[in-house]
Structure formats: structure tokens, C-alpha cells
Amino acid sequence: MAEFMIKDINLAPQGLKKISWAASHMPVLSNMGDELEQIKPFAGKKVVICLHLEAKTGYLAMTLQRGGAKVAVVASNPLSTQDDVVAALVKQGITAYAWYGATGDEYRLHLNKALDFEPDLIVDDGGDLVSLLHGKRRDVLPGVVGGSEETTTGILRLKAMEKEGTLSFPMMAVNDALSKYLFDNRYGTGQSVWDGINRTTNLVVAGKNVVIIGYGWCGKGVAMRAKGMGARVLVCEIDPIKANEALMDGFQVMPLIEASPLGDYFVTVTGNKSVIHRAHFQVMKDQAILANAGHFDVEIDKVALEEMSQEMVVVRPNVQQYRFSDGRALNLLAEGRLVNLAAGDGHPAEIMDMSFALQAKSLQYILESGDQLKAGVHKVPEVIDKGVAQLRLQALGYEIDQLTEEQKKYLDSWEL
Fold it and tell me: Which residues are recorded as binding substrate (predicted)?
């Protein structure tokens, strides 16, 4: 059995059932796994996966293992780890360092243990693993061939490192692939955020005001689903182009300070810090729901919330209620962490099928490219991006039209 630091190995049978369910709804990754098992592109290579450790991630780890890799997993978020899934991975011979509810010190210990694995390739979510590699764990850097990043936040951090000249190996920007953000960020986030909010609060959405802070692809998805459930949607933005998009999509647009007294639900989707802060808390209505769908637990200013309130009471699992001296109470979901994962099961399996297929193909591309890929942030090649989309259509039994040679010639010509 692989090395591990986990909650309880006896949870493995339950976790394996979860992974099997996800796998049965991830045909692209399944077909890719069959191919990888034949050619073994990762033979002799070590891969560290730092993602939300739930069933879909588990299946990605097992797919890379089929391709010959020795795999270790570590959590990118202490509140999204599913202990039974992690136990199942250990039973499958995968090294694991994670458990639900890990403290800050435990989280850092797990990351360091994962780097002790001495990976050739990494899959990161948010940039914590890459940041640690380039900070306190530079001893591991020489052996890292490259990796891939899953999130918008992580790619922003990587580009900052690239700009400074500190990024030491190639990283594939999986989040920026069309087959990722058009589906994962929009439809995946849109559905899973409301799955998390609804199962946690057991409150109605129809007829209420939902304030979406950030109208990127994730924000678009959350807003679309809120509208579909009958909410009145208010959008807060700093980008005039995205604000115009929100207007033309039929939503109200206003500064957050104006939306604060109106909102029943607030969902942050920005990737920035202190997006909701003291001035907003002061004017929010009693029993407002605060949820974060950005990457880290910094979008909602929890320090200010604690300082302003008289007491905090956990009124339901994953609901912290902050009570104020004026009689109002504000409800923070999942400690301000990603509500769709910390209070739910994350994106649907069919969505993550495409995203994780891109991850697997991106790692394979890094190995096949050899020294041709320089240190820095790289786009997923179009042939991989569209190839994954085509594989999904095939798996679902759909066909699409093809250009004729005459049409191709016409599109390539500038002459009348």
C-alpha cells in the first residue's frame, strides 16, 4: 500500500463507490485512460496532483496511474477533501496526504510531504504548490519538468511569476482552454455553487435578490442559474465591458455598496481579496447569506465580520451566523471557502470530464515537447483543446459537419 497521511483507511469502500459513479459519467477520461494504458507515456514519472480531493479528482489520479505514473495527491482546500475518496485512492496504490478540516499547519505539512515525493510533473489548483516550490522548497525544483494549472486565480499568480522571471518550468494554462472555461467555469460553477448553497441553507431562491460580485465566466454561470431559479439578479463589476455584458444579459448593474442593503444572497466570484468588507456588512439586511465562489477564502472579509459582531454561532453545518448588536445576523457559508466544494460535491462529473481530460493531455504534451517548452505560462494547443471537445461529442453519440475542400480553400483565400 502507498504511503499516506489520511483520516481513516477503512473508509475506502465508500470512496471507491463514489469514484465508480463519477467514472461512469466521464466517458472522455475513460477513453483517454484506455489509450494511456496502452502507450504508458508517464512510465517512470512521478505526478503530484494538488486539487480538490473528491471523486472526479480521484478518477483523474487513477487515469494518470493507468498511464504509468506514480501518483501522489494533496488537497488544494482543507474543506473540500472527502476522506473516503482519499482512502480509496490509497487502496489503489496512490500516495495521499490530506484530510477534511486540516488546520493551516496541517495543510502546509501535507503540501511539503507531497513535494517530498519529488514530482516530475504537477497539477496545481490556485498556485499554492507552485508557490511553495519556488519559495521554501526550491530543493525540489530541479526535478520538475512542468505542470498544469486548473484555475483563473492560479494562472494570475503564474503570470505574475512569469513577468518577474521567477517561474522555473513550463505550466500549461488549462483554465484558459476553451473546452475548460466555457463549460467548467460557466456551467460547472453555475450549477455547483447553487447546489452548495441550496443544500446548506434549505432556503428558497425564487423571488429574492441575488448579488453576483464579478461577471467573468464563473459569475455568468452563477447569475444564469440564479435567474433560472426565479431570483432577481444584481451584478457588481469593476470592468465596464463585463458590466455591459451583464446589462445586455438582462441583469441590474450597480456598485456593491448600493446592492448591499438589497441582497438576500451575495456570491463573490472575483479571485480578489476583501471584496465584501466592513462598509457592506454595516448596511446588509438581517439574515443575508454570504457565499464565496472565488478561489481563496479572502473575498469576504472575515476579520471585519468577526470584529463587528457580538458573537458567532454555527446554526447549521457549514453556516456560521454572525450576530450584531443592532439585532441583525449575517450568515457566512463554508467559512468563506469555495461554497460549491466546501459545502457540496463540486462540479458535475460530465463537466469535469472535459477539464480533467485536458489536464491529462497537457501533462502528456509537456513530456512529448521535451526542451521545446521554455519556462513560463503556455496555452493548451488548439489540437488538444478541440480534440477533447470532439471526443466528448463522440462519446455522446453526436456528429457535426465538416468543411469541404472548396470551403477550406475559400476561407484561406483573400481574393474575390
Answer: 125, 150, 180, 184
pLDDT of the residue at 1: 56
List, as one string, the DSSP characters of 77-142.
Answer: -TTT--HHHHHHHHHTT-EEE--TT--HHHHHHHHHHHHHT--SEEEESSSHHHHHHTTTTGGGGG
Domain contains 412: no
Burial zone of 238 (CB within 10 Å; 0-12 exposed, 13-18 middle, 19+ buried): middle
**Percent of all residues in the chain with a pLDDT value above 70, rounded to a whole number:** 100
Shared domain for 158 and 13, answered yes or no, is: yes
Q: Is 292 annotated as a binding residue?
A: no
340 marked among binding-site residues = yes
- The answer to whether 198 is annotated as binding is no
Residue 200 assigned as binding residue: no
Q: Cα dist. 88→63, 69, 71 in Å?
A: 14, 17, 13
**Is 220 annotated as a binding-site member?**
yes
Confidence (pLDDT) at 296:
86
Q: 143 and 203: one domain?
A: no
Instruction: Decide if 410 is inside a domain.
Output: no
Q: State yes or no: 270 annotated in a binding site.
A: no
Kindly state whether residue 415 falls inside one of the protein's structural domains.
no
Give which of 125, 119, 222 is closest to 174, Cα–Cα.
125
Is 217 annotated among the ligand-binding residues?
Answer: yes
Asked whether residue 379 is marked as a ligand-binding residue, the answer is no
Mean local confidence (pLDDT), 397-409: 96
